[in-house]
Amino acid sequence: MHNHQQKANMAVDQTRRLRPSDLQADQDAFAALEGIGDYAPSNKSYTVAKIQALKDAMAEADDKETQADAAAKAARDDATSAEWDFHNAILAAKQQVTAQYGADSNEVQSVGLTKKSERAKPTRTPPPASGSKT
């Protein structure tokens, strides 16, 4: 029965993160527990030393997560910079193709630009006739 009661007090979904307020309440409870001089649990899994080891492991895991987040952000920044470097080089290369082969060449078309002769000609809409009402 004691084991069943213990499991009833445990969280159901242990795959989600705890709220910061819950963690703070746990840390406050642990600080109070450390102040109880004659605390001697019948289940030795919950001694102050064992709980301190779990708290230390949590802090270490949090530190690793923070470092991993920072590394992921740095990698994302590096990837973004590399993408822009590549993109800008392609834009410049397209300009170089236009300069070398001319704006109406097949080479210009092959790099994804529109030949000058194939661009749509601008069309003007005639102004409405004065005196006519619509």
Please provide a written account of the structure:
The protein has a domain at 19-110. The chain has helices at 2-9, 20-34, 48-101, 106-110. By secondary structure, the protein is mostly helical.
Please compute the radius of gyration using only Cα atoms.
35 Å
- What spatial form do the alpha-carbon principal axes imply? elongated
Largest sheet: none
Determine the structural class based on helices, strands and strand pairing: mainly alpha
Relevant terms:
4 helices; single chain; mainly alpha; 134 residues; 0% strand; 61% helix
Quick structural gist:
The protein has 134 residues and is an all-alpha fold. It contains 4 helices and no strands.
Fold topology:
Elements: H1 2-9, H2 20-34, H3 48-101, H4 106-110
